[in-house]
Specification:
556 residues, mainly alpha, four-stranded mixed β-sheet, two-stranded antiparallel ribbon, globular, disordered N terminus, TPR-like_helical_dom_sf
Length: 556
């Protein structure tokens, strides 16, 4: 034993070194940068295309829908770990960039730090900020800073980043590693300033003087996103589930995750009413359309009709069968007699039947699989009487399948709102019109701008600006959620399911943090404002108000 111990002693240090690991003291910032950027973009789109789209009624799910449609949320352990994990990597990027005097990478790190901390505070409220990321210095239980401190801090980071990008040449050597802008410092400066506009408007109800001066300063600079080509986006690689579009069917053999995500009636109805050209980009018509037929002897057809002919014995077809048949030019319908029709399950769907070409799922239904007299309830096949997302969203990458962090359209809507408030930010109508044009550019339908604008011509109200911004935030619904929380707009109506009695306002602090940093978390929880919707979780509830909306009377 003594011989064995002595023989191992000399090589013990060498054995414990990881030959495949990255030494933080010699890490190349360029190699860290894409890790931070891809992680953040992936997580952000999974929120904005995922359950936050359920909150703001862009989409609904028609099965396993409690967390998506009804906001029946639990503690956010995984989400919290992910965002602070990105911060740890970003901290390495920042420190190494400063040590090596890599100014471009330093600016990227400052921008990403602001984006990540901003998202954390947006989602939860107070959070570790000043003393976060100092575990190697012995700060294992950091105190939670207030939202006010965090937002002011990220604004300073974004100012510093914009200044760096304003005096730095395009980064040729970093182009391969910069997966948003290929080393283009001008676009990074626009991104930083657009984020400044975002966060100034975020705090506008609480710190109006700071917000007004900040937005006016950025507007005066003229440096912010102005064209869809400026958007901060990440393309997907598409080689596995982790670097592909969320719900790509290539990594979901049953296609269940794609199939059960449906357009919400709230969004579909808005798009249809305004003849919005984005409708056909995002969604499909119903596969089997209801047809009113007063001559029908029964309340409704039991079987599908193909080109008007009843297909005896066939109540439904699979998605693939319908897809192939429609592609071949066939039309599938079911008829009903409006005077004889009676709902099959009036406790779950009490009619009337929706005969529209595009049909969305109403928000917060008790059991959405029964909507519109679906004959295959409980996910037997799919609801043939409700629209689905475009087949494009089955893909892994390419085209419109991008993770979007900020856009020119969002920028123009912010400036329109600022101008509508009377701030020195230009002309509200011009910004509003630009925002719509930029969104149509993003989705490839800019040629229909003139016709569409007639349907949504500017009326001079904040409500209209926020409504169109809500539409344009498709796949980045987090921004629509935070706008709703700040303004109460659009005036979204919660569903009838028990847990969806009001739209939520925040995420719930994680159990892991409560167990390991309890005193700090409890201090933050005490600062939350309990509401009549908070329920058994009391202050640490998705319906409790963080500082950002306390005293504003918003959104309810």
């Amino acid at each position: 034993m003594l011989l064995a111990v002595s023989s191992c002693d000399d090589s013990l240090t060498e054995i414990n070194e990881n030959p495949n690991g990255v030494d933080p003291n010699s890490a190349n910032p360029n190699l860290v940068m894409p890790t931070v950027m891809s992680g953040v973009a992936n997580r952000y789109v999974k929120l904005g295309y995922g359950r936050i789209a359920g909150v703001v009624q862009h989409t609904q799910e028609d099965a396993w829908k409690d967390g998506f449609n009804d906001y029946n949320w639990t503690e956010e352990d995984d989400e919290w770990k992910e965002w602070y994990g990105y911060l740890r990597n970003n901290n390495l990027l920042y420190n190494r960039s400063v040590e090596l005097n890599y100014k471009f990478q330093e600016g990227v790190a400052l921008t990403m730090r602001a984006f990540i901390f901003g998202t954390i505070s947006d989602l939860w409220g107070d959070a570790p900020y000043t003393n976060a990321l100092k575990g190697d210095a012995g700060e294992m239980l950091p105190a939670f800073d207030s939202q006010e401190v965090i937002y002011k801090g990220i604004i300073e980071d974004l100012k510093a980043a914009a200044a760096i990008f304003g005096t730095t040449e395009n980064e040729r050597d970093a182009a391969f590693y910069d997966i948003y802008f290929n080393g283009n410092t001008q676009k990074w400066q626009k991104f930083a300033n657009t984020l400044l506009l975002r966060y100034y408007m975020r705090i506008s109800s609480k710190l109006p003087d700071v917000a007004k001066a900040g937005i006016e300063s950025v507007y005066t600079s003229g440096i912010y996103m102005k064209d869809a080509s400026d958007d901060a986006v990440m393309d997907f690689i598409g080689t596995d589930a982790n670097n592909s579009w969320p719900n790509a069917v290539a990594y979901d053999v049953s296609e269940s995750n794609w199939r059960r995500r449906r357009p919400a009636a709230t969004l579909i109805n808005n798009l249809v009413a305004n003849s919005d050209p984005r409708l056909k980009v995002w969604f499909q018509p119903v596969h089997v359309r209801w047809v009113s037929d007063p001559a029908l002897a029964t309340g409704m057809d039991e079987f599908i009709r193909k080109d008007g002919v009843i297909q005896t014995g066939i109540k439904s077809l699979t998605q693939m069968e319908l897809k192939a048949g429609i592609a071949a030019g066939h039309k599938y319908t079911r008829h009903f007699n409006p005077t004889k029709y009676k709902p099959s399950h009036p406790d779950l769907f009490n009619g009337p039947l929706n005969t529209s070409e595009y049909v969305g799922i109403p928000a917060g239904m008790t059991d959405p699989t029964y909507y519109n007299e679906n004959p295959t309830t409980g996910q037997q096949v799919q609801n043939q009487h409700a629209s689905q997302l475009s087949y494009t969203y089955q893909g892994v990458k390419g085209g419109i399948l991008k993770a979007r962090l900020a856009s020119a359209s969002e920028t123009s809507f912010i400036l329109a709102e600022a101008a509508q408030k009377g701030w020195a930010a230009g002309n509200a109508e011009t910004h509003y019109n630009n925002a719509i044009k930029q969104s149509l550019q993003t989705w490839g339908v800019a040629d229909q701008y003139d016709a569409f604008l007639k349907s949504v011509a500017y009326k001079g109200t904040q409500a209209q600006i926020i409504e169109q911004k809500w539409v344009a935030s498709w796949t980045m619904a987090t921004e629509a959620w935070f706008d709703y929380r700040r303004t109460g707009l659009p005036a979204l109506v919660p569903g009838v399911a028990p847990t969806s009695r009001a739209l939520p306002l925040r995420f719930i602090y994680s159990n892991n943090e409560l167990n390991n940093n309890g005193a700090s978390v409890r201090s933050a929880i005490e600062k939350l404002e309990e509401t009549s919707f908070s329920g058994v979780r009391k202050k640490n509830s998705q319906w409790s108000k963080p500082w950002l909306v306390q005293g504003t009377g918003k959104p309810w």
